[in-house]
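<purpose> Linking amino acid order to shape
<body> The protein record starts here
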Amino acid sequence: MEAVLSPAPLAGEHHDWAHRLESSLDQRQWSSALKPIVSKLAANRPLTVEDGLVLYQHPDLNEVGALADVVRQARFDSKAFFNSNVHINQTNICVLACRFCAFRRGPKAKDAYAMSVDDYLADLATYAHAVDEVHSVGGLHPEWGVEHYETLFQRVAAEHPHISIKALTAVEIKHLGQRSSISTKEVLKRLKDAGLTSLPGGGAEILDDDVRAVICNGKESSEEYLRIHREAHEVGLPSNCTMLFGTIETLEQRLQHMISLRELNDQTQGFQCFVPYPFLPDDTRLPEAQLASGSEVLRTIAVSRLMLNNIPHIKAYRMNIGDHVAELALQFGADDIDGTVQKESIMHLAGSTAPLDHDRAKLARLIYDAGCEPVQRNTIYTEFKAYTPPPVQPRRRLQMASD
């Protein structure tokens, strides 16, 4: 039986969440090391790098998680969000060769591919009945300019008007500007007119150019990433933002990364969700990587929730961290687990083992198991529906054979 989506009251952020937070924080006892941070959170004052270091180094991970969970519940009660989406990675051919990337191929590689517009539409048609978002990022194809993506997005919007297009990272926008000899802001305007709905946040890695010189040399600079997202917000395209951690960065660099995003959002209010995810290692791409444990993933998600007071949503990206850690993360400050995905290449080539066959009922079960209420959202967090799973059919009792 198909699950039923029933309309619900606005399931987004409480308008009075800061007042609710202050009241909730006062009802708990906190260790002396965290009390100064609790006071700042109660007053809705932004945390500093030094505050973040206290949170990262605090010996009681569960207390840090509990603090982040109080913040999450003040904003969203027990709701946790997901959507119905499919990932289509349009090409793995890329002019760059970032050291952490397992997806990129050179043009002459045997497994290199570049989907034509017709191929892309044929692939999307397989999933279109079950999704309301297509998420597309890929390599920097040496021959594709902005016109290619204008045609693609126009076709998607015409053939599947119910599907939101979340596509192209900042470095892809930069590449299209260079290929087409126009500014990145003009790229964004043209793609929005063609049907682009929002930008994913990929490519932020760590917003420190010393780190970027090692792990993604040749990619956009920290300033360029922030500028392109600023421009997206200015032309009316909301975006997500990300952080790849567990390579060679320091804790201070992680925290400054978060603050850089927070400061931009103070000005634009265009970031809708922050997505921290750990580097998935192997022995060849980045052998000096520090590698993040499960507890560090949970701590980083909790610290993100506490540092980013002006970015509404924190995503536990199950395609990267797996279902079990994502479920725990919903008790450590995260309020979103992405979506049904259906198909994904980049994280799985990097080593992810998260299942790709999640439908809404399975995601709802994961959310229920975390003690939360599943709410289906649209891409840009403006429409919400409480998710009612299909009823569980009772098992048929075995009939004993008569003598």
